[in-house]
Amino acid sequence: PEAITVADLANRMAERGADLVKALFKMGMPVTLTQTIDQDTAELLVTEFGHNIKRVSESDIEIGISGDDDAPETMQPRSPVVTIMGHVDHGKTSLLDAIRGADVVAGEAGGITQHIGAYQVTLPDKSKISFLDTPGHEAFTEMRARGANVTDIVILVVAADDGLKPQTIEAINHTKAAGVPMIVAINKIDKPEAKPQKVREELLQHEVIVEQMGGDVQDVEVSAMQKTNLDKLLEAVHLQAEILELKANPDRNAEGTVIESKLDKGRGPLATVLIQRGTLKVGDVFVAGASSGKVRAMIDDKGKQVKEAGPSVPVEVLGLSAVPSAGDPFTVVDNEARAREVAAYRQGVLDKQRTTAAPVSLENMFASHA
Ligand code: GDP
Ligand code: MG
C-alpha cells in the first residue's frame, strides 16, 4: 500500500520523471516511469532532490499528497483513455470528429458539443471511451516527460494512400517507450489508391506486427471521411481495454491531470481535467500545478453542468486562481490553507526549474530509458 510509481512521485514533486529515473539508476535501481518504488525509496528520492519531507499525516509524504494507496477492494472498473497519433494529414482530426459524431449520447443531446480538449463517447452497450482531443506528439511527449501518464491506448492513424511517414515512426517510438498498447487505424481506405496491405508490411519493418500479419496489434481499415468501420475501431479499443483491466478507486479525493487550460474573459481561468482516481465534486478544494482553487462549477464535453466527475471522465473546471499548464497534476486537498501551501511550494519548484532544467526533448527522454 505504500508503493508509488516513479511517474506519480515525479508528478507530486513537480520534477521531471526522466530525472527521477536517472537518480534511481545512480542509486542502483534501474526502474522505469511506470514501475513502483517503496515509501523509503520515495522519501530518499525526495530528499535527494532537495525537497523537505514534511509528514502531513503518518502516510503522506512531502507535498502532502497520497500515493497510489488504494486498497484492491476499493478498485472499480474504469473506461479507457485514448490518444490518436499519426502523421500530419493522415486523418487524426477527421477521425476524432467522426468518432465524436458516432457517440449515441451526443446524438440524443441534439449533437451539441463543446471543445474542452477531451471527450467521452458512449458505445451502444453503454460502455464509454474517453478520447484526448488534443492530438499531437508534443502534448504526449511533454505530459509523459512530466510523469503524467494519461493515455491507456494509442490509436495510430496511417493513411492507406501514403504509408508510414516520419511522424508515424515518431509516434510508434513514443508509444513503445511509454509502454502503451497500440491499435492501428488504416485510414482513407475509400481512396482508389489506398494500399492497406503495404501499410501492414511497412509497420512490420518497425516491429509493429498487426493481427493480419500474425501479430497481436489490432488493425482496422477505416475511412474517417465516409465513416466506415468506426464501430469496428471502437470495438477494438473496447477489447484492448478489457485486456488491460483498467481500474481506479472512485471513492476518494480526486486526482487527475490538466489536459488543456485557458483564460476566459467572462469565466476566468479554466482547465479541462482528466480525472484519474477519486471523484471530483463541486465545492472541492484543489491544487492544479502551481494554482489552487475551489470547484465553482464543472462542465462536461456535451456542455452540460455536472455536480461530480469520476475516473476517466474529462471535465472543465471553473474556480481556479490562475491558469495551470497542460500536464499539471490536479489534486483535491483537505482545505484551502493546504491548497495554498502546496501551490506555493510548486511555484517555488517551477521557479527553480526555470533556471536549471533542460528543455524536454525526445533525446533526453530516451536517454532515461537507455
Ligand atoms: P490530421 O492532420 O491528421 O488531423 O488530418 P485531417 O483530419 O485534417 O485530414 C487531412 C485531410 O485528409 C483532409 O483533407 C481530410 O478531409 C482528408 N481525410 C481524412 N480522412 C479521410 C478519409 O478517410 N478519406 C479521404 N478520402 N480523405 C480523408
Ligand atoms: Mg489535425
UniProtKB/TrEMBL annotation:
Domain (Tr-type G) ranges: 77-245
Localization of this protein: Cytoplasm
Binding site for GTP: 86-93, 133-137, 187-190
Family: Belongs to the TRAFAC class translation factor GTPase superfamily. Classic translation factor GTPase family. IF-2 subfamily.
Role noted for this protein: One of the essential components for the initiation of protein synthesis. Protects formylmethionyl-tRNA from spontaneous hydrolysis and promotes its binding to the 30S ribosomal subunits. Also involved in the hydrolysis of GTP during the formation of the 70S ribosomal complex.
Protein name per the record: Translation initiation factor IF-2
Biological classification of the source: Bacteria, Pseudomonadati, Pseudomonadota, Alphaproteobacteria, Sphingomonadales
Primary gene name: infB
